[in-house]
Amino acid sequence: MKRKAVFLDRDGIINRAIIKNNIPYSPRKLSEFTLNTDIKPVIEVIKKHGYIVIVVTNQPDVARGLLKESILQRMHTIIRKNLPIDDIYYCPHDDLDKCTCRKPKPGMLFEAGKKWGIDLKKSYYIGDQARDVLTAYSAGCIPIILDYPYNRDVKESLRINRLEEILDFLKE
Predict the structure, then answer these.
(1) DSSP 30-96
(2) What pairing do the DSSP bridges indicate for beta strands 23-25 and 52-58?
(3) Could you report the per-residue pLDDT of 119-142, keeping only the tens digit for each?
(4) Is 11 one of the catalytic residues?
(5) Among 11, 61, 128, 132, the one annotated catalytic
(6) Which of 42, 57, 113, 169 is disulfide-compatible with 10, CB 3.0–4.6 A?
(7) Domain 5-168 is of which CATH architecture?
């Protein structure tokens, strides 16, 4: 029997995004990397419901030379040490690389699905951008958008105002 998962986008969901001119950016320095304070208890309840929790994130600043791989790994170590997640998948490529892992392509979700035995149709993807919704649909997952002023134009997905609201959707 396949397992259920909740996929979480990193920037804007796991940690705070850097907002400039109403556009979200990934932190590039450890000093900019701050976990969202409400994420840990939400993940703990998600896990109690029997879901695997996997972080998926585009990190094109690695390919662009704006983020060192070692800093990215330290950020992910902070996530692993502080949150009860099962895995992290990231794409270090830029759009020009035309890889299969860069969201909105579903490569990271397919890879996680294979490794963890996940039924993607019974899984959720929580993000904060249109790219996240497209990724979820491409993989067959249920998309949920966490509401922010910068994503009010994103349609065609479930929308939550607070991370805790994801718990209303989970089924045993």
Answers:
(1) GGG--B-TTHHHHHHHHHHTT-EEEEEEE-TTTTTTSS-HHHHHHHHHHHHHHS--SEEEEE---GG
(2) unpaired
(3) 999 999 999 999 999 999 999 999
(4) yes
(5) 11
(6) 57
(7) 3-Layer(aba) Sandwich (3.40)
Q: How far apart are CA 122 and CA 114, in angstroms?
A: 14
| Residue 30, Cβ density class (10 Å: 0-12 exposed, 13-18 middle, ≥19 buried) | exposed
- Per the CB < 8 A criterion, the answer to whether 136 and 122 are in contact is no
For residue range 8-23, list pLDDT tens digits in order.
Answer: 999 999 999 999 999 9
pTM of the model: 0.96
Which DSSP category does 132 fall into? Answer: H
- Is 9 among the residues known to form the active site? yes
Residues 102, 97: Cα–Cα separation, whole Å: 9
With residue 160 as reference, give the H or E element that holds it: strand 158-160
